[in-house]
Structure formats: structure tokens, C-alpha cells
Amino acid sequence: MRTLRVGPVSTRVDVASVVCSLVAWLLTLAVGALSLTLGDYRIPLPLVLETLSGHGTLILNDIVVNGRLPRVLVGIGVGTAFAVSGAIFQRLARNPLVSPDLIGVNAGAALAAVLMITVLGSGWIPAGALLGSLLSAIVVYLLAYRDGISGYRLVLVGIGVTAIISSVTAYLLTLADIYAAKSAVQWLAGSLAGRTWTHVVLIGAALVVLLPAALAGARQLRLLELGDDLARTLAGRVELSRGLLILVGVALAALATAAAGPIAFVALVAPQLARRLVAERVAGLLAAGALGALLVVVSDLVAREIFAPTQLPVGIVTAFLGAPYLLILMARANRIGRGG
Amino acid sequence: MRLRAAGLLLCVAVLAVSVLLSLSIGNQHFGAHDVYLALADFSGSDNDRVIRYLRVPRTAAGLLAGAALGLAGALMQGVTRNPLADPGILGVNAGAALAVVGAIGVLGVHSLTGYVWFAMGGALVATVVVYLVGAIGRGGATPVKLALAGAAISALLGSVTSAITLLDLSTLNEFRFWVVGSLTLATGPVIGQAVPFIAVGIVLALVLGRSLNQLALGDELARSLGTRVMLVRVMAGLAVVVLAGTATAIAGPIGFLGLAVPHVARTLVGADYRWILPWSMVLAPVVLLLADVVGRLVARPSELQVGIITAVIGAPVFIALVRRRRMAAL
């Protein structure tokens, strides 16, 4: 932790966290550039760069700028959003195993999206998913509220609400015709296939608004981590700042889910990776975001190439990468007595 | 003692009524007389065929799966001393589901006798992993740690399951009807195959009542009373795997039944597992059959699968338990 002074303004900067974020961003850019060159039709990097600067042929322009670039950008965006959301929830609940996946946010989005796919038509998925996840998050929060919010109660109520919502989702899948059901399951797995500039704008706008809000809340997070009593003496309105932080976390996860489906484990793993790398007790939000972007972009590249020409949804790959890590994490967290 | 035995008899009577309701109510309603004729004097008329080939297997599936899940839930709550234990919440069903999907999609197994083994294997692996992960560290397997481990592992198993279903359309088609949890999936012969498995599980479970009472006192006291703690745990685990695995194989993953029913039983008969176990075994199929009857009636002419009804009834029980101020260990 260093203090940075520019004239009258000073701020505290965590050097390790900044370095870690920078390295992760550089790697993300490199992998992103690599995925622009790969695909059914391989395009060498100089040609990609030429196309990006506006000097490519029409067909190259279509493949790179309208096809592959939005996919990479959406991947970066949702990776960042999921990871920052996960970091907020983990720190609020003071539990490394808490993530928006577990507290009903994804389930609500999933139900809404399946409803859209099977009943209303796919154009409404982002709006529906956003509404669905916000609604389920509100329900979970209200049901878990009892003289304040405890992290464990939030998670356990989330598990219960998720169970109801998922059973309705499963029921809708039995009503749909099999091709609609397949595209719904694909969406449920979390996929970046066929993403357009609309999705880029959606997730980009979300980050522009919510990321500064999350960073502004980071100070409050540190206070809340001291426990409610201490935080109340130091900062006053604990419930308000916790409520706002939950709102930011839910909105980030909801918008990311709206753009790319519920990509599994990113929100859970990225903040933990950041914590290990930065060797801070808590996950820095920026470092977590950078690692989330890297994780999603790498996973999507793997998902595209591993069974090419068949493409897997990126969520399957993140699940395979994330799950073993999750098991280790749970074992560790429980051993040091912080798992609950 | 006499009261609890009389109550149990009453429960059996209620169960008999539920069976009759399940046989007679549906898209077509039948009177008790029709049901009797179809069973005792089969004439081959349309009515008789509906009762014999649709309603009877469905009701039998409800009886078996219900009894199995009720017992499995009570056993899990007893062994882990955890009020939130349930085959659905602790990932046992997800393990069975993944194994069944693997058997259908990758190995091409389509008969219950084929995939019941996979279901039990999947249930076993999931149970062991969840318990091991949840039991590490301070305080052993606390309710919260186990529930979290179960949810996380269910999420993991669920994404592997959807990967398999995405690669093969026909597996997805078979799986999506199975995963909601329904009593209409298993046919008569298939249910016949499940009977011995469930029977073994029931015997194993009912024998353990006394030992579970001693486990409730804590491991050390139980040990000093002469209970072989490890042996009881392993036996109970085995019974849970057989019961939950077989139930999942015939009816799909039905959640929350195993959670809610033992709590009802405990409220009615007290903390004695020698009574909780048989009461759960009789009450759970009552709930399951009635839920199934409700599912047939609410969305006519279509039906709601029973797994949806149990989730909608059972999850609020779970949430209510969580909201209790102190989630006392059992």
C-alpha cells in the first residue's frame, strides 16, 4: 500500500494489485488478439491489425469487425463484470464461497431467458434476464432479511429460492419444442457465440456506470469487513452502504448474464485468484476484474478450438476449469475455519 | 409409545387413502368401485387399462420413491446432525442425475436396471465428496458448510450434465423430462426392478434408529455408550445412497421431500429416531402422492410434474428453517 500524491489530491494505491491488474490486462489483450486471428478462416495478425485500422477488404472487415471482435469484447466485459460482482459478494458475506451463481441471481435470469426463448422470442432475452435476476435478487434479499443481513442466511435462502426457480425453468424446458429447448440449454450454459455490437454496447455501458460505483464502494467494503458493530461506529449507515453495494453487485451480474448467459464460476474463482496473487487478505476489485476478463477470454478460445468445428459454450469450459479449483478452495476455506 | 404407534397406524390409513386418490383422480376420474374392478377383475376395457397400466405404476413409483426419499432425508439429518440435510440440497440427486445422463448419452444405457447402478454410483460419489469437503475444519460438518458444499457441487455437476446434453439432442430430449422429477417415467416392470433395492435400503435404515439416537448425543458420548460410530455412519451412508439413488433413477431428482418430511415427523413424535424413521417412511409417500394428484389437477388438461410441486412446497420449509434465529444442530 503506497500513498500517491498529485498536488492536493492523494490516494492510497496498492502496488501489487495494480501490477497484477496490468499484467492480466496485457495477457487478455494478447489472447484477444490471438482469438481474432483464429477460427474457420485463419487471418494473420498483421492483416487483422490492418482490418481493425479500417484498411481491410469488405469480407475481412465482416469477419473480424462484425464477427470476432464483438465476441472478444463481450467476453472481456462480462468477465470483468462477473468477477467484480463476485468480489463484492464475497467480501460482503465474508465468505469465499459466496457468488451471484449461488444466491439466486443467475437462476432468475435463467428462468426469464428460457421464458423468452420458448414463449416471447429471443430478442427480449437481455431485457428479460435483467429483470429476472433483479427480481430474484430482491426476493432473496427480502426473505433473508431479519434484523439485518447475515451472509450465511443470504446464501442459504438463495439456495432455496434457486431450487424453486430452477424447477420452474426445468418445467418450461419440457413444454418447449426440442430445438427451442436446445437453444435454451445452450444459453443456460453461458455462451459468447453470435454476439453482436448490441451486446458490446450493453455490457460496455453497464461497466461504465457500475464499475466506478463499485470502486467508490470499496472503501465501505473495508469497513463492513470489520463487522457490523465496528463499521457502525466508524461509518454510520451500514445498512445503506451494504444495500447499495449489493445493488451494484447484482446489477453487474445481471447485465453480464443478460449479455452472455450465466457463465459458471467466473464470479467465484476470479476474486479468489486475485486474492492469492495479490497476497492481500481481501480481493482487490480491479485485480479481480482483470483476472475475470482473462479467464473468460482464454476459456472462450478453448471452447471454440477444442472440438472445432463444433463449438462448446464458454460456460462449460469455465466450469471445468473452475470446479476443481472450487473444491480445493472449499477444502482450504473450511480447514482454516472460514467456510462457515 | 402407544400414542405414537396409534399415530403411525393412522398415517398408514392416510397413506391408503392417498393411494386410492392417486389411482382414481386424474384426467379421467374413477370411483373406488372402478378401481377395485380394474385390480380384481381386469376386463381389458379402456378404464381398466388406464388404471392398470398408467395409474398403478405411477402410484407404485410414488410409494417407492416417497418412502425412499423420506427415509434418506431422515437418515442424512440424523447422521450429520444437520437440520438442512436433504438428498437434493446436499448434491446427492445431482450426482445421480449426472451419472444417469452419462449412462444415457455416452454409454447408450436406456433401461432402469442399467442406469440404476449409475445413479447409485453417482449418488455415492457426490455424497462422499460433499461430506468430505463439508466436514473439513473447525466444527466438523456444520449445516452451513454442508449446504454450501452441496450447492457448489450441484452447480458443478449441473454444468457437466448440460455439456453432455448439449452434445447430443436425443439425450437432451430424454433428460429434460426426467430432470423435473416425475412419477410417469417408470413403467411397471421397471418399478418391479426397483423394489429389491428399496427394500434393502428400508431394512438398513430402520435397523439404524437406535444408533442414530445415540449419535444425536455427540460422537464421544455415543462411543462411550458402545455405539460403533464409524460403522453407523458408513451403514447410514450406504442406505442413503441406495435409497436416494434408486428413487432418483425411477422418478428423477425430486428435491425437498427428504428435507421437509422428517421435520414434520420430528415435530409430531419427538426426537426419537426409532419413530422418526418409520413416520418419515410413511408420511413422505403421502406427501408425494398428494403432490402428484395436485399436479394432475392444477394445469388441466396438461399436468405439472410432481418435482415442481414438491419444490414449491418444500423450498419454503427450507427457507423457514434458515430464517430461524438459531439454527440449532440436531
From TrEMBL, chain A:
UniProt keyword annotation of Cell membrane present: yes
UniProt entry keywords in alphabetical sequence: Cell membrane, Membrane, Transmembrane, Transmembrane helix, Transport
Subcellular location: Cell membrane
GO molecular function, one term: transmembrane transporter activity
Ranges annotated as spanning the membrane: 12-35, 72-90, 102-120, 127-145, 151-176, 197-218, 244-270, 282-302, 314-331
Membrane topology type: Multi-pass membrane protein
GO cellular component, one term: plasma membrane
Alphabetical list of CDD domains matching this protein: TM_ABC_iron-siderophores_like
InterPro entries registered for this protein in UniProt: ABC_BtuC-like, ABC_transptr_permease_BtuC
Pfam family name, one: FecCD
Biological processes per GO annotation: siderophore-iron import into cell
Top-level taxon: Bacteria
SUPFAM superfamilies attached to this UniProt entry: ABC transporter involved in vitamin B12 uptake, BtuC
Family matches, as PANTHER family: FERRIC ENTEROBACTIN TRANSPORT SYSTEM PERMEASE PROTEIN, FERRIC ENTEROBACTIN TRANSPORT SYSTEM PERMEASE PROTEIN FEPG
Membership in a protein family: Belongs to the binding-protein-dependent transport system permease family. FecCD subfamily.
The protein, known as: Iron ABC transporter permease
Species this protein is from: Kribbella antibiotica
UniProtKB/TrEMBL annotation, chain B:
Keyword DNA-binding tagged: no
Protein location: Cell membrane
Major location (coarse): membrane
Record flagged with keyword Ribosomal protein: no
Segments passing through the bilayer: 56-76, 88-109, 115-134, 146-167, 187-209, 230-256, 276-294, 306-323
Domain of life, per lineage: Bacteria
Membrane-related topology note: Multi-pass membrane protein
MF GO annotations: transmembrane transporter activity
Signal peptide span: none
GO CC annotation, single: plasma membrane
Keywords linked to the UniProt accession: Cell membrane, Membrane, Transmembrane, Transmembrane helix, Transport
GO biological process: siderophore-iron import into cell
Family under the similarity heading: Belongs to the binding-protein-dependent transport system permease family. FecCD subfamily.
Protein's name in the database: Iron ABC transporter permease
